[in-house]
From TrEMBL:
Matching InterPro entries: DUF306_Meta_HslJ, HslJ-like_sf, Hsp_HslJ-like
Signal peptide positions (record): none
Matches recorded under Pfam families: META
Source organism (scientific name): Methanocalculus chunghsingensis
Protein name, entry field: DUF306 domain-containing protein
Length: 140
């Protein structure tokens, strides 16, 4: 288990260096975002209904609720590039299977983040090939 954690940490570091990201928050900190839509397994955009949220801190951590479970991860952002580590989440089970499926997909997709853009109250996260995978609205 310790070796896997070490390997994961090294891979995140290598990815950050390869992406050219700078340490910091890229202007993301201080705001909580609610998931509006996400890319489904088939590549189609799906309207989010589970109420997932994400909040970026200035110290390189993020946290939120994925619909049923709380989660946290580390991130690095800058120059519109972003890398998010695999999140650690609580392990509660929701009886609504659609919420569990949306949560599973959301927690997977945040690890696929490569770039982001801010347009007013909308945050778009895209994967390496440029496809938009997550869209968030600013929470007031």
């Amino acid at each position: 288990m310790k070796r896997r954690t070490l390997i994961t940490g090294v891979l995140v570091l290598v990815t950050l260096l390869a992406a050219g990201c700078v340490a910091g928050d890229g202007g993301l900190s201080g705001t909580t975002w609610r998931l509006i839509s996400y890319m489904g397994d088939d590549g189609q955009t799906i309207r989010a209904t589970a109420g997932a949220t994400i909040s970026f801190s200035g110290d390189g951590t993020l946290q939120g609720n994925a619909g049923c479970n709380s989660y946290a991860a580390e991130y690095r952002a800058g120059k519109n590039q972003i890398v998010i580590s695999h999140p650690v989440a609580t392990e509660m089970y929701c009886t609504d299977e659609s919420v569990m499926e949306e949560e599973r997909r959301f927690l997977f997709l945040i690890t696929q983040a490569s770039t982001y853009s801010l347009n007013g109250d909308i945050l778009i996260i895209s994967q390496r090939d440029g496809r938009e995978i997550l869209a968030f609205g600013r929470m007031l």
